[in-house]
Structures are given as structure tokens and as C-alpha cells.
Amino acid sequence: MTRWDEDEFTANDLLLDRELIDSRGMPAGRVDDLELTVPGPGEPPVLTALLCGPTAFGPRLGGRLGTWWQAIGRRLRPVTDSYPNRIVVELVDHVDRLEITLLTPRENLDSYRFRQWAEEKVIGRIPGSTK
Amino acid sequence: MRTSELIGCQVYDAEGQAVGTVHDLHFRLRVQPDGSQVCQLDALECGGIGLGHRLGYGEHAMSGPWPFPQLFRYLARRSLAVPWSQVTAVNRPRIAVSARRDQLRPARRAGK
Question: Do residues A22 and A102 touch, judged by C-beta distance below 8 A?
Fold first, then answer.
């Protein structure tokens, strides 16, 4: 069960823009948006997933810049990935004001693939980047 | 539904009067009968400006270089909390609520 630091909070306080830390303590991305689902008629929406990546951040930016941002993210993603990248709330271990800890290693997350590609193909080729 | 579909929407009360722009979502943890936890959307925080809230200056405990805390608290003083139970329609960029503006309570941090 997810451990929350507070029983009442706002999206900006605890969730949006928080760093995601995987089960091994490595950074795994950032929360760009939240998915809410209405469980039944007349019931309030509940949090079902954290959304990450440019395809999640674009709509939050809004306007033409947001559309462009989302379109770039959509074109750069692996074709097998769904978008935006979802991290279901059941994979969340602990939420505090600084970071969100996950129950899974980052390699299992769709949101990590683009980061990994950038690290291998771009950053890793910069002289001195591996030191 | 995504938070980006709610944040930034204009809220209108039962009389068609503008309440403000949604700048944050208030959640509450609930324990289900089977023992599991759900994080339920409780209210929409809306007002004329969301920057003060976004930076945490809506809370009186927040300190910072003068005059930012005073300025942002002043700008955020009219923020209102709209309970989700009173939301009647969400048609981005417009959200309709069943209550009148004067029946809405101030957003949670006010007065703390």
C-alpha cells in the first residue's frame, strides 16, 4: 500500500513536478500530469496513475507550445510505447514533499526508455560524460 | 480525465458568475471497505491568480525574501475551494458548479 505523508494535500503540494525515484534509489523521471478516473456514476474521481514525459507535459503547458511539445514527444517515443507514459498508483511506494518512491526499477518503466536512449546515444558520446 | 483538463478552466457558479480559474486540485485519502486506499479528488481550488499557491506562498508558514510572502498571500487571499460534489459540468474551458460564489469556503490555507 502506498505510504502518503499527508492525508489531505493538493496536486501541486505532493504530486506534480515531483522527482520519481525507483526501487534502487535512482532517478526515474518526473511527474508531469495525473490521471484521474471516475469509479462510478456520481462518485468523485480518484487518482489512478502518474503521467510522465513530453506527451504528458505538453497538454499541461497548453497553447501552441504545448501542442508542439506533445508532437515532438509523440514522434520520439518508441512505437511500441503507449503515450503518455503511465505509472499506475499501485507501483508507488512512498509520497512526500520532495520525491515519489516507486516499487519497481526504472528499467521497467516506459518513461525511462527515452531517458536511457538519450544517455546512451547523446550524453554518453560527449567526451568526459562517463567520468 | 487528466489534471491538465481541469487546471486552467474557468469556474462559474449557479448564477453564472465567474468564481475564478482552477489553479490546484485538493485530494483526500480514503480507506475503502476492503482496506485499500484511494486518493480521491475532494475540491478544486480556484481564484484570480494561482502563482502564489503554486509557489507555496498561500500558506502562512511559508517564509521567504520580503516582500514575496506578503505579496503572494495578498494575491491569493480570494482563492476559493469548490467541492467536487458541487461540480455539475466540466466542458473545458468551463466548469459549472451548483453553489453560489458566496457559499463557497476559502481555499484550505487561508487563515492558517
Answer: yes
- Is A131 among the domain residues? no
Q: Are A47 and B38 within 8 A, CB to CB? A: yes
- Any idea how long chain B is? 112
CB contact under 8 A, B3 and A60: yes
Q: What number is the average pLDDT over the span B30-56?
A: 80
- Which domains does chain B possess? 3-48+79-106 (2.30.30.240)
Distances in whole angstroms, Cα of residue B68 to Cα of each of A12, A14, A47, B108: 19, 22, 33, 20
CB pairs under 8 A between A and B: 77
Nearest chain B residue to A17, by CA: B54
How many domains is chain A built from? 1
Residue A130 lies in a domain: no
Candidates B10, B21, B24, B27: best to mutate against A (most CBs of A within 10 A) is B27
Q: What CA–CA distances, in Å, run from A8 to B4, B20, B33, B39, B91?
A: 20, 22, 19, 9, 27
Cβ contact B2–A36 (<8 Å): yes
Chain A residues whose CB is inside 8 A of the B40 CB are 44-47
Q: Give me the interface pTM, i.e. the ipTM.
A: 0.79
What is this structure's pTM? Answer: 0.81
pLDDT at B112: 40
